[in-house]
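Here's what a typical entry looks like (L-seryl-tRNA(Sec) selenium transferase):
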Amino acid sequence: MPSPQPEAQDVRRLVPRTDTVLADPAVEAAVSRLGRDTVRAAVGRVQAQVRAGVLGPDEVVGAVLAGLPARATTLTPVINATGVVIHTNLGRAPLSQAAVEAMAAAAGTVDVELDLATGRRSKRGRGSLAALLEVLPEAGGALVVNNGAAALVLATTALAAGREVVVSRGEMVEIGDGFRLPDLIASTGARLREVGTTNRTTVADYASAVGPDTGCILKVHPSNFRVEGFTASVAVRDLAGLGVPVVHDIGSGLLRPHPLLPDEPDAASALAEGAAVVTCSGDKLLGGPQAGLVLGEATTVETLRRHPLARALRADKVTLAGLEATVRGPRPPVWTALEADPDRLRARCDALVAALPPGTGAAVVPADGVVGGGGAPGRPLPGWAVALPEDCAAALRTLDRPVLARVERGRCLVDPRCVPESLDQALADAVREALGRLG
Ligand SMILES: *Cc1c(COP(=O)(O)O)cnc(C)c1O
C-alpha cells in the first residue's frame, strides 16, 4: 500500500482533534451558551483552514471562538436612537428591568396554572389578571390573549359570529402591514354592518342599523391617522344606550387619561361610559410584552374566556409574568421616553457631541420625537438630537451593537429620548466608531 505524501501526513497530525478543541474551557463555555452543533460546525470550519495551511494549529481555539455567533438567536439587540418611542420594527415597547426579571424567572417551571397552597389547578395567569383589575377597578373582568388583534377577533367572534357587527365607515382602519379591520372581522364569521361616512357618523346612523341581528357595536380608535375638518363621531356613552354590547378597541392600552396624549382613548373612561369590553395591545402605551387585553364587564369577559377560540389565542407564561410585572412594577421605559424632559435631552446631546473628536460636523439640533406604533399621530414630543452626516445612519446600523438613528432632510439624527441613560456611554462609543468608519 503506498504511504501518503509525507507533507499530507504531517498536516493531518497537526490538525487538533475535535474532542480536544471542545475540551478547551472557553470552547466548553461556548457550547453551553450556543449548543454543541453550532460549536462543532465552527470547529470543523477551522480544522479545514488548518488543513489548507492558512491557519496554525495553535490558532484553532481563538479562531473557533471568533467564528461563533454572539448569541443563540439571530435577533440582535439594537439601540433605539430614532426618537420613535414605540417602534414596531424594533419590537415596540422595551421592557422594564422588573418585567425582564419576571420573564426570565417564568421561563423555567412556574405556578401559572397551579395553586401551591392546595396543589390544585388554578385559573391561568391569575396574578396578571388581579394586577389589571387592581389598577383598573372600573373593569369587572380581564383576559389576556396574544395581541390586540387577537383580543378584537375574540370579542367579535364571541359576541357576533353569524350576526352583525356595526362599525362606522370612519373607523375601517388598516392596522399596518396590510392587515385591515374589515378583513379581520370577516374572518370571524361576523358580518360587517357599515354605518355613516368616512368623515361623519352620528348616533342616528348606529341606531337605525341596530336590530335583532346585531351582535355588537364595534368602536375602533383610528390610531394611526387623523381626520380633520367637517367630522363627527359618536362617543361610547351615546352608543352604550342602544341596547347592544359596545366593544371599544382603544388600540394603545392607555389605562387612564394622560395630559400628554389628550386625543388617546383610555380604558377607564371607555368603561365608565358604558363599553361592555375594551380591547387593546400590551406592548404599546401600556409598555409591556406583546399581549392583547380584554377588560370589561365580568359576564362579557367570561363569555369570551369560555369561547373555544380563546384557547387558540392564549398568552404564554412568560408573557403573563412580564405583563404582571409591568402593571405592578416601576414605570415602564415607554413612559420614561414619552415624558423625557427636553432640557435633559439637550444636555445628553451636548455631552454626546463633547465626547466626539473635533471636526465631525456634529451639531445639537431641536428634534421632535413621536409616540409611534401607530399611536397619537401628529403629536410631537419636543426634544433634541445630534445631527450627523446622512451616511452615518448606515454605519451606525451595521455596528456589532447596532444603533438605529433617524434620517431626516439629508441628516442622520441621533435622538437620545428612547436610549436609557445607562447606555449613553455605549451610544457615544458607537457614534465615534461609525464616524471613524466613514473616515
Ligand atoms: C395596534 C392596534 C391594533 C392591533 O394590535 P396588535 O397588538 O398589534 O395586534 C388594533 N387596533 C388598534 C386601534 C390598534 O392601534
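The CA atoms of residues 240 and 274 lie 5 Å apart.

More examples are in the samples folder.
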